[in-house]
Amino acid sequence: MRKLLLVIVPCLMVLLAACGTGKGLTRAEREAQLAQQVESALENASYTIAVDWMKPLGGMPRHVSSDYELKINGDQVDSYLPYVGEAYRLPYGGGKGLNFKGKMMNYKVTRTTSNRYLIEFDVNNDEEVYHYRIDMFTNGKAIIDIIGNDRDAISFDGEMIF
To answer: Which of 14, 23, 77, 78 has the most C-beta neighbours closer than 10 Å?
Structure first.
């Protein structure tokens, strides 16, 4: 019995010690860790922004209930975003809108404040040239503004996915 206790007690102590330190990181440490993840993703130009709100020019903001997102991978962009607004010239059938894959041009990341980055690039989807402007915050939140040549501008709110 004594030998059994000599084995069980140390195991229980290790288990309790592991549970006792399970409080995790402080809020400041979690924020710093998240900021580092955002910075690393922007440096590597590899990230996804899940969109949950759209704000058409001159329209009411609307909650987006689907899996709309903007993916950046190297010099490629995969834009799967809804569009509501006025279009001035469209191909027959409505065209691609903001649902396309394309190559980015003039990709630039600028740190504007201690907790904010400005990302800008252009994309030609064979129908139209779009200018993307993303305000990315170190907490992972993002505001995406898209200006097209033949459409009204539109804005989206979302969050970076890791």
So the answer is: 77
Contact partners, residue 87, CB within 8 Å, separation at least 6 = 150, 151, 152
Closest CA to 127 of 156, 145, 102: 102
Tell whether 35 is covered by a domain: no
CATH code of residue 85: 2.40.128.410
List the chain residues with pLDDT less than 70. 1-23, 93
Determine, yes or no, domain membership for 156. Answer: yes
Structure token digits, residue 159: 């969050």
For residue 17, give every residue at least 6 positions away whose Cβ sits within 8 Å of its Cβ, in sequence order, or none: none
| Rounded CA separation 111/65 (Å) | 31
Q: Cα 5 to the chain's mean position, in Å? A: 53
* Residues 47, 140: Cα–Cα separation, whole Å: 11
CA–CA separation, 65 and 121 (whole Å): 26
Task: For residue 5, tell me if it sits in a domain.
Answer: no
First to last CA, the chain: 50
pLDDT 10s digits, 140-161: 999 999 999 888 999 999 999 9
pLDDT score, position 125: 87
Give pLDDT, residue 23: 60
Question: What's the pLDDT score for residue 8?
Answer: 52
